Amino acid sequence: MKKQSLLVCAFALTLFITSNAFSQAPVTKGGIPVLPAVKSWGVSIDASPFLNYAGNIFNHTDNTAPDFGFTKNYPLSLTALYVKSEKVTYRTNLRLAINTISVDTFVLLGGSNANQLTTTNTYKQSQSNVTLGLGVQHHKGERRFQGIYGYEGVIKLGTAKQSYKYGEALSDSVNPAFGDRVTLIKQGSTIGVGARGFLGVQYFFAPGISVSAEYGWGFLFQSQGKGEIREERWDTDNGSGEVKKKTTPLPKNSTFKLDNDTGSGAINLNFYF
Fold first, then answer.
1. Please, which residues bridge with residue 258 across strands?
2. What is the dihedral of CA 6, 12, 17, 22, to 10 degrees?
3. pLDDT tens-place string over residues 62-99
4. Residue 93's closest CA among 135, 124, 63?
5. 237-266: b or e for each residue (b if 16 or more CB lie within 10 Å)?
6. Which of 128, 196, 207, 244 is close enough to 263 for a disulfide, judged by CB 3.0 to 4.6 Å?
C-alpha cells in the first residue's frame, strides 16, 4: 500500500509539473517573455517583400531588393495594434494621403510667331484618400503558435480633381482646331463603408515579433457623387468672337461587393513594444 501511495504521489507530481510547464507563457533561454505584454502597442507591416526577397535570391533574379509596404487588407494603410488582454488585441488601420502634381509645358504662341515665342500651360492634379479601420482580434492559444480570428470595419473617403491653366487666352488666332478645351475635370467625392471577418494563424519567432497569415470575407459599399467637366471655346456665331464656357455633369455611381476580394489573404509582420 505504501508503494502504491508513493507511485500515485509521484504520478500526480509529474502531471502537475508537466501541466504547469505547458500552461506557462513561453520565454527565451534568458527568461525574456516571447508573447507581448498586456497594454503594449505594436505595428503591422506587409511581409510579402521579405518573402519576395528570399524567393528572388533562390531564383537568382535581379529584383532582390525588398520593397516595403503596409498591410494588404487596406492598401497603403498603417496598422496599429493594442494588446487589450491576453486574448484580445485591438487593430486600427489608418491612411491619410494628399497628392498634388503640377506640370508646366512650354507651347508656341498663336498667330504670327516668327520669333518662336512661347508661353506656359499648367496642368495640376490633386487627390486625397483617407481610410480608417477599427477591429478586434481574438487569440486562441498561449504558446508561440496561435490561432487568430476577429472582425473589423472600415470607412474610406476620397476626392480627385484635374485642372488646366492656359498661358494664352482664346481669340481669333488662338482657336483650338480640336474644339473645346478642358479647364477642369472634377470627380465626385467618394465614400466607402465595409466590414469583414477574418481567420488565421500567428507565430511568435522572437520576443514581441510575430508573423501572421489571415484570410477574410466581407462586404464593401462605395458611392461616388456627381462630378463635372468644364470646357471653353471661342465662339464667333454673333459676329464678334467671345469665350463660351460649358459644364458637363458626370453621373454618380455606386458599387457593392460581397466577396473575399474585400479582405483578401494577407501575410504580415507584427512588432510589439
1. 219
2. 150
3. 554 444 333 445 656 788 999 999 999 999 988 888 99
4. 135
5. eeeeeeeeeeeeeeeeeeeeeeeeebbeeb
6. 196
pTM, rounded to two decimals: 0.70
CA pair distance 131, 191, nearest whole angstrom: 10
Cell readout for 63 is: 529584383
Q: How far is CA 254 from the centre of its chain?
A: 20
Q: 113-168 pLDDT, tens per residue?
A: 666 788 899 999 999 999 999 999 999 988 899 999 999 999 999 999 999 999 98
3-state DSSP of the chain: CHHHHHHHHHHHHHHHHHHHHHHCCCECCCCCECCCCCCCEEEEEECHHHHHHHHHHHHCCCCCCCCCCCECCCCCEEEEEEECCCCEEEEEEEEEEEEEEEEEEEEECCCCCCCCCEEEEEEEEEEEEEEEEEEEEEEECCCCEEEEEEEEEEEEEEEEEEEEECCCCCCCCCCCCCCCEEEEEECCCEEEEEEEEEEEEEEEEECCEEEEEEEEEEEEEEEECCEEEEEEEEECCCCCCEEEEEEEEECCEEEEEEECCCCCCEEEEEEEC
Query: How large a percentage of the chain has pLDDT more than 70?
Result: 74
